[in-house]
Design brief:
234 residues, alpha+beta, Deoxyribonuclease I, Chain A, 7-stranded mixed beta sheet, 16 strands, endonuclease activity, Endo/exonu/phosph_ase_sf, Endonuclease/exonuclease/phosphatase domain-containing protein
Length: 234
């Protein structure tokens, strides 16, 4: 099986109409695993999930929002993957999965990064800790809320120390930062354009899914673009 994973900062799931709009797009993209960040929900139950994913075979784990901010939900199609274990942290939700078709084991983590540099260091530590927990091929995706290079921020040329720390985390964990097709940025306020969202994969993931790539998807009525990791090739 060659999975498709969608990651998207949706800026809130409180409105039913918005959830139905997201459901329409997810049906169009045909993903096997979906990670939505900034849900702004303390509880995500089956009723909410059913308005996001039309299949009856969906399962999920989530990180509750803190007040009216934050929150992550990771959903998956149980016909394609079976969850083995999960981890709910401060800034991430991680799961180990087994493929229903061939039994291949792998791990995925969905991230919603903080805005403060001190807290970002906690995120790097959290990623490193969970990465060492499961000795599996890894994919880590989401809104990291930080760029790596000046070329990833248009209209704001200042590069923060957190960018160097982010790159060091990627290097220390031997992760691969895939290039992004479909455009250079994933967030915009119409004055600045920035790449905050990405997928990072381990060499073991790349060896198993040799045609893996990531693409920026269409953005409608949102300041964030969703991104798709496609392991089936262009």
């Amino acid at each position: 099986m060659k999975p498709k994973i969608v990651s998207w900062n949706v800026r809130g799931l409180n409105e039913v109409e918005k959830r139905l709009w997201i459901r329409h797009l997810l049906r169009e993209w045909k993903a096997d695993i979906v990670c939505l960040q900034e849900t702004k929900l303390k509880v995500i139950n089956r009723k909410i999930v059913r308005t996001l994913w039309s299949s009856n075979c969906v399962d999920w784990v989530y990180l509750a929002s803190s007040g009216a901010s934050g929150g992550i939900v990771v959903m998956w199609d149980r016909r394609m993957v079976e969850k083995v274990e999960d981890y709910i942290g401060r800034y991430m939700v991680a799961c180990s999965f087994k493929s229903v078709l061939d039994g291949f084991m792998r791990a995925f983590a969905g991230v919603y990064g903080p805005n403060v540099d001190v807290d970002r260091r906690l995120l790097w530590d959290e990623i490193a800790g969970v990465h060492g927990w499961w000795e599996l091929p890894w994919c880590i995706g989401g809104d990291f809320n930080v760029v790596r290079f000046q070329s990833e921020s248009f209209g704001n040329r200042r590069l923060r120390p957190a960018s160097l720390e982010f790159s060091k985390c990627i290097f220390d964990l031997n992760l691969i930062d895939l290039p992004l097709a479909g455009g250079p940025a994933t967030w915009s306020n119409n004055q600045t354009w920035t790449r905050l969202d990405r997928f990072l994969i381990s060499p073991e993931w790349e060896r198993h899914f040799s045609d893996v790539w990531q693409k920026r998807l269409v953005r409608l009525a949102s300041d964030h673009w969703p991104i798709l990791l496609d392991c089936g090739g262009i």
